[in-house]
Amino acid sequence: MKAATTLTDSPVLSFEGVDVRAGTRLLLSGVSLAVPRRGLFGLVGPNGAGKSTLVRAALALQPVARGQVRVDGRPLKAWKPRELARVVGYVPQHIHSHWDLTVQELLQLTLAPASEQLLQDFELGPLLARRFNTLSGGEQARAAVARAMAHQPALLLADEPSAHLDLPHQHALMRQLQACAKQAAVLIVLHDLHLAARYCDQVAVLAQGQLMAHGAPAVVLGNETLARAYASPLQRLLSGGLSFFTMPERGVAP
Amino acid sequence: MYLETAAAERGAFQTIGHGHYAHDALGWAGGRNVFSDLAGSQQVSAEAIAVRDPEVIISLQAVPKPAATIAARPGWQHLRAVREGRVVVLDRGHKLIPGPRQIEAVQAYAQALHPELFA
Amino acid sequence: MTAMTTGRWSLAPALAVLLGLTALAVMLALSLGAAWVPPARWLGQDGLERDLVWVWRAPRVAAAFFVGACLSLAGLLFQGVFRNPLAEPYLLGSAAGAGLGAAVALLLPQFLPAAWSLPVLAFLGAWGASWLVLAVGRIGGEWQPARLLLAGVALAAILSALRGLLLMVLGDESTNLRAVVSWQLGGVQTPTASELLGFLPWMVVLGWVAWRLAPGLDALGLGEAAAQSLGHRVPRLVSASVLLAALATALAVSWGGLIGFVGLIVPHLLRWWLGPLHKPLVPACMVAGGLLMVLVDTVARSAMPPSEIPAGLLTALIGGPFFLALLLSRRERA
């Protein structure tokens, strides 16, 4: 069943001047951004920038001290947990099942049964009888994303799903998410700037709880923005139309 | 007859068999212990008591409670002794201490077993 | 996708097997005891034999089934909430909490009417103990299994000791050491007729509520955030599950005393047989738990006539080694 969302140009997720606190510490400060209804939206930034906090706030897992989070135009507080769950899909950072589920059983933990199409798209057919915890990292990530997409949410939130994957699987996952982004909005937290530059339609750079910049990757992921965000002289290099990121050698001018 | 020396909530009952001084005391009082085949102090189950269906039940209690509490135990209402009202509760006192005061114990048992002789 | 390929059975055939085994176990239970009464003679001439089967054994077998069903359901729920297959009412101290509550009810009848004070206080004791362990065992948003179990063991020891102390201080001399110890060893108590009638409704209610909580417990296995993203209110889910588990524990303890390891073994074995999804596990655990307890009680009643072995001793003898084996196998995997 398709999630009931209005098919307008309004963003599916928006933050308006959002502050999130933990005690006296500000995890997010005055964050305002809008995630469009289609496309792959990357969230990058150094450790402790508040990326995971932002995702948790969007899931109503973190209370907002100031400002407003809106899903599909409605304030988050107005959504009942069940309603929100229909519209949002979530892939957590550490994909782990405490119980020894088979992939087929994992795919039962959804709001709608996994369709044949879904199984085909994610190539999960041969994996159904396997125990989830015995799969490789890449296969687990695929299954986890499939599980989150099973009920066709309008917004998929993924918190560093490629973190523990090897190179080929990172790219495979990003391509999979790109395919998902044709039918939904996909917000993904990334550490890898190259993946962000290559696959995302839009990127937001977060540092110390504040939004540094957001827009197209080519514009946003420039040396100055990165240097400000990471407090280090990061360098972007272009090769064959692709962006690569590194730090210059000490003592060598960038 | 069945001499109950202790009873715990969980349906575990303690009685005595041959070789125990209380068993001898019962014999002198004119009673026949249904558990005479056992030796010494033994734990028995409610079912074992039911199978042997004693005519008289004597319960030794430190703080004597009315005999009705024994009759109220689930299932015990079918025992012959309970149906015929021959359940006696005696003060434990010195009855479970081997010594010269066992004579008093014999007296007490005899009264419980043959009330008509003491009327 | 058939059961053959995953190796896991589906609920219907499994339940059929379990119920069949239960029927056999009940027949065995009714035949064995202080005297052997085969089924042919259950409705026979001998009044004593009929009494043995229907007056003495049948209610007790029903109670044993009920106690087993409650214990394994409580174990399943605790394991689901703590996300740890080593959680169960005995090890977590909830059973001891129920015992303390029951002791308070027994010894202070002047404050509360006796009729319902015992189960209510037993429930409060189980619930209080569960929450204490929950509070101690949680660090940084996740329950650490080692901490949980240590807290549970410590709490169980404290509560059992408190119960003994209470009995010795406030009880009269009839509630002596023997009574204290015998409760701690566990044993199925024969219910009265009115209590017997309550067993089935209780099992239906407990089972139904657990069935409703099952999808939430499944989702919890993926982490609290994932469960929340599936629309479950996690704090409410945890509260409800703990409450239900405490209730089941209190009921089991009221008729069975401290019986451990049933809540540990049954869900664990069934998870291996049926898979970890909670919906099929709820009815399967209740039936399998009842089956196990009927067998344990039968052995307790007939292994060493005319004495009775405390049921808790038997379950500890079987369950203890099982628990150790579990710990060892997990260490290898980790």
Considering the chains and any ligands shown, give keywords for the structure:
heterotrimer; B: 119 residues; alpha/beta; Rossmann fold; three-stranded antiparallel sheet; 6 helices; globular; C: 334 residues; mainly alpha; ABC transporter involved in vitamin B12 uptake, BtuC; two-stranded antiparallel sheet; 13 helices; 1% strand
Structure characterization notes:
The complex is a heterotrimer of chains A (254), B (119) and C (334). Chain A has 254 residues and is an alpha/beta fold. Chain A has a single domain, classed as Rossmann fold, CATH 3.40.50. Chain A has a 6-stranded mixed beta sheet, sandwiched between helices. In chain A, α5 runs parallel beside α6. The longest helix of chain A has 14 residues. Chain A starts with 12 loop residues before the first strand and ends in an 8-residue tail after the last strand. Chain B has a single domain, classed as Nitrogenase molybdenum iron protein domain (Rossmann fold), CATH 3.40.50. Chain B has 6 helices and 6 strands. Chain C is mainly alpha-helical and 334 residues long. Chain C has a single domain, classed as ABC transporter involved in vitamin B12 uptake, BtuC (Orthogonal Bundle), CATH 1.10.3470. Helix content of chain C is 75%, strand content 1%. Chain C has 13 helices and 2 strands; from the N terminus they run αααααββαααααααα. Chain C has a two-stranded antiparallel sheet with strand order 1-2.
What layout of secondary structure does this protein have?
The complex is a heterotrimer of chains A (254), B (119) and C (334).
Chain A: E1 13-22, E2 25-35, E3 39-44, H1 51-58, E4 66-71, E5 74-75, H2 81-87, E6 88-91, H3 103-106, H4 116-121, H5 137-149, E7 155-159, H6 167-180, E8 185-189, H7 193-199, E9 202-207, E10 210-215, H8 217-220, H9 223-230, E11 235-239, E12 242-246
Parallel strand pairs in A: 3-8, 3-9, 6-7, 7-8
Antiparallel strand pairs in A: 1-2, 1-4, 4-5, 9-10, 11-12
Chain B: E1 2-4, E2 6-7, E3 12-16, H1 21-28, E4 41-45, H2 46-52, E5 57-61, H3 68-71, H4 80-83, E6 87-91, H5 102-113, H6 115-118
Parallel strand pairs in B: 1-5, 5-6
Antiparallel strand pairs in B: 2-3, 3-4
Chain C: H1 3-6, H2 11-31, H3 47-82, H4 94-107, H5 114-136, E1 138-139, E2 142-143, H6 145-170, H7 177-185, H8 193-220, H9 224-229, H10 234-256, H11 262-274, H12 278-302, H13 311-333
Antiparallel strand pairs in C: 1-2
Helix pairs in contact in C: 2-3, 2-12, 3-8, 3-10, 3-11, 3-12, 4-5, 4-6, 4-10, 5-6, 5-10, 6-7, 8-10, 8-12, 11-12
